[in-house]
UniProtKB/TrEMBL annotation, chain A:
Coiled coil: none annotated. Residues 1-179 form the AAA domain. InterPro entries: AAA_dom, DNA_Partitioning_ATPase, P-loop_NTPase. This is ParA family protein. Pfam families: AAA_31. The lineage of its organism: Archaea, Promethearchaeati, Candidatus Heimdallarchaeota, Candidatus Heimdallarchaeia (ex Rinke et al. 2021) (nom. nud.), Candidatus Heimdallarchaeales. PANTHER family: COBYRINIC ACID AC-DIAMIDE SYNTHASE, P-LOOP CONTAINING NUCLEOSIDE TRIPHOSPHATE HYDROLASE.
From TrEMBL, chain B:
It comes from the Archaea. It comes from Candidatus Heimdallarchaeum aukensis. This is Uncharacterized protein. The chain crosses the membrane at residues 45-66, 113-133, 164-181, 227-249, 427-446. Keywords: Membrane, Transmembrane, Transmembrane helix.
């Protein structure tokens, strides 16, 4: 089983969309995928999958539920299958003490995540983990147990600066253990006004970083127009260019 | 908005979490539990923590109160002597790059001196002497520069490996440096140690003969077996690991102890010998030196802490230490090189006698021996000499002096460190009972001899 985590400096870079579209494409290739919403501060899987009455990842992390109770079967295509583990903001809001436990700097969650990885490795080909953006202990846990780390950035100055800081303090310390790729997402958000000059400058900076820090393991996603919160492999009218790019990306990650 | 200082502090916390997590992930992959920070354990088990603290305070203060009345007063750390020695070392025995030397331009002994230097600086730091992070960092750079593909090699000559003894002394120094730099910014990967130990075990451990053997030599030395045992024992005790790659360390200890009993005892005289033949296992060098025995006792003192496996072994550190005191020391506890007060009076032997005394918790003996080093081997308020009556300063002598000065406080810290880290059944009250017993026997021997002399 291969473990891939997706991380970014800021929210809104499209990392969840990429992660779930990678998952969708893997499923159409007949692979068994478990995707975990580990973005404990802003969980987003429920925008893509309308599923009610859930148990959440936090239930497992806090030893309230067994693993099989928090895994949800979502979609099957031929031999392929995607199962999900959801997170919930509501849960964190209601259980402030548990939330404190989840954000604190305690290795117990690394053990739980490692235990989860070991428990599912026989049943899945891929474990995909969506993480909380920025410097967050639980995101570091996810990166630690990953084979591949996909770092998503949009071309903005703050993302460029944040990425530099993340490299210095986190990514550089993991470079021996985890295979890292930098993904530049150039898809413009619908209705958002952008300063073209700043975007160009940021893209240049990101490319330089890709060369300097990530040994040119750089993926550029051109602007295909709005992608929406959907998984194109499961759609009747997908954006084919986007899907081709995702397919190319998977081939690259698989070496 | 957060201030810049707070941000840097947060980033440091993230880096430190990442470093700890790397180690913890390794533990998890080896099927062991990760190390949780104390504050979380306390929060989760508040009741048991309070109970535990009450018991600990009771268990530590009461014996101390009783012991205070019987023990000699422990001297204050000899800061000034350490400072003078470090000055002598840096002016006379170090080149401009910080590499230890015995004479300018001559690097033939540098690898051995780097090992001793790393060992002494790490021990001084752990003993609470004023050693800076920069000084430790230099030791790290130096010792890693002589580590080539897991083996310790001659300075500036990667193809020439050091002897078995120095391979294991290098590992011992590396372990102390790891222990010293554990919570500092210059900490380094434990894998360097494990890889190097694995390399030495592959290269020198002969499973069939149950001995550490240099294939190019004809004899196997007692001191090599002892030092290897010592290193293996503290690897288990400090890092709570039992396997290094394909090697199961307790089995190696058990096997080497068996060989020490069987092969290093002269069948006719029942005395321990200094070396045996690689092939026939017949004794070659019959006369065992105080240094040979001291390293053996030091090793056994740590092996004995691995209680479950080795406590019942025939080799007794009590008897051996008693023999050293009776046959190799005079009434002032000056250690001689050879039996019945013969041979040279070397600081190296006095250093290991002091260190071993503290490892066995023989504080009074240790203090007396420390006093020998600081009076008989300390010259002109400058530094330490190699040999009584020879008046020769050397880099090596000064490193031994520093190790001796660090010994009392370092050994206390080591014992608690082992108790914190080793999760086997070893360091228990039964080991403490053994310590009390050893103390009583040694105090009895020394008192008896003093009365005889009077």
């Amino acid at each position: 089983m291969k473990t891939i985590s997706v991380h970014s400096y800021r929210g809104g870079t499209g990392k969840t969309t990429f992660l779930l579209n990678i998952a969708g494409e893997l499923v159409t290739r007949g692979k068994k995928v478990l995707a975990i919403d580990f973005d404990l501060r802003a969980p987003a899987f429920q925008s893509y999958f309308k599923i009610d009455k859930l148990n959440y990842l936090s239930d497992y992390l806090l030893n309230k539920k067994h693993l099989e109770e928090v895994i949800v079967q979502a979609e099957e295509r031929g031999n392929g299958r995607i199962d999900l583990i959801f997170s919930s903001m509501e849960f964190l809001k209601q259980h402030s003490k548990q939330r404190d436990k989840l954000v604190r700097d305690d290795t117990v969650y690394l053990s739980k995540l490692y235990q989860l990885q070991k428990e599912v490795e026989e049943n899945y080909d891929y474990l995909l983990i969506d993480t909380t953006p920025g410097f967050f202990y639980r995101s570091i846990d996810a990166m630690m147990i990953s084979d591949i780390l996909l770092i998503v950035s949009t071309p903005t100055i703050s993302n460029v600066q944040g990425l530099e800081e993340l490299w210095r303090n986190v990514y550089s310390m993991l470079k021996e253990d985890v295979n890292m790729y930098l993904l530049i997402n150039m898809i413009e958000k619908e209705g958002e006004k952008v300063d073209k000059e700043l975007v160009e400058k940021s893209i240049e900076e990101l490319k330089k970083m890709g060369k300097k820090y990530f040994a040119n393991k750089l993926i550029e996603i051109p602007d295909y127009g709005a992608m929406g919160e959907r998984i194109h492999s499961f759609e009747q009218e997908p954006n084919k260019e986007f899907l081709n790019k995702i397919s190319e990306l998977i081939d690259l990650l698989n070496g | 908005m957060k201030g810049e200082k707070e941000k840097v502090k947060d980033l440091k916390k993230v880096q430190s979490y990442l470093k700890d997590s790397k180690k913890n992930l390794l533990l998890l992959k080896r099927g062991k539990k990760p190390r949780r920070k104390l504050k979380f354990l306390i929060k989760d088990h508040l009741f048991f923590t309070i109970l535990f603290l009450v018991l600990i305070v009771g268990a530590t203060t009461i014996p101390l109160l009783i012991k205070e009345k019987t023990d000699d007063k422990i001297e204050q750390p000899e800061e000034k002597k350490v400072k003078e020695t470090l000055t002598l070392l840096s002016t006379n025995f170090t080149d401009s790059e910080g590499i230890p030397i015995n004479e300018l331009g001559n690097y033939t002994e540098s690898s051995k001196l780097i090992i001793l230097s790393t060992l002494s600086f790490s021990m001084l730091y752990l003993a609470g002497f004023n050693i800076t992070i920069e000084q430790l960092s230099l030791q790290k750079d130096n010792i890693l520069s002589i580590l080539n593909d897991g083996s310790f090699v001659q300075f500036n000559n990667n193809s020439q490996k050091l002897s078995i003894f120095y391979q294991f002394l290098g590992l011992y120094a590396l372990i102390q440096l790891l222990y010293a730099t554990k919570n500092t910014e210059i900490g380094f990967s434990i894998d360097i140690l494990f890889n190097s130990l694995n390399k030495q075990l592959r290269e020198y451990y002969n499973k069939e003969n149950r001995l550490f053997i240099d294939k190019n030599a004809t004899e196997a030395f007692l001191v090599d077996q002892s030092l290897a045992l010592w290193v293996i024992a503290i690897t288990i005790l400090y890092f709570n690991v039992e396997s290094i790659f394909e090697f199961y360390l307790p089995d190696i200890i058990q096997d080497v102890l068996y060989s020490l009993n069987q092969d290093y005892r002269n069948a006719t005289t029942n005395k321990i010998v200094s070396s045996i033949s690689n092939k026939t296992k017949e004794p070659i060098q019959l006369e065992v030196t105080s240094f040979d025995l001291l390293i053996l006792v030091a090793a056994l003192s740590r092996v004995n802490l691995l209680y479950d496996y080795f406590f019942d072994n025939d080799l007794s550190s009590i008897n051996l230490f008693e023999n050293i005191i009776n046959q190799y020391t005079d009434e002032k506890l000056i250690v001689y090189e050879k039996r019945f007060l013969n041979g040279h009076l070397l600081i190296r032997n006095q250093c290991f006698f002091t260190l071993t005394s503290y490892l066995l918790h023989l504080t009074v003996t240790g203090n007396q021996s420390l006093n020998v080093v600081t009076t008989n081997y300390w010259k002109d308020n400058k530094g330490f000499i190699e040999e009584i009556n020879a008046n020769k300063f050397s880099a090596e002598a000064n490193y031994y002096g520093l190790i001796t000065l660090a010994s009392p406080e370092w050994s206390k810290g080591e014992y608690f460190y082992i108790q914190d880290n080793y999760k086997g059944n070893a360091v228990t009250s039964r080991a403490d009972v053994l310590t009390i017993f050893v103390s009583l026997v040694i105090v009895f021997i020394i008192n008896k001899r003093r009365k005889r002399i009077k």
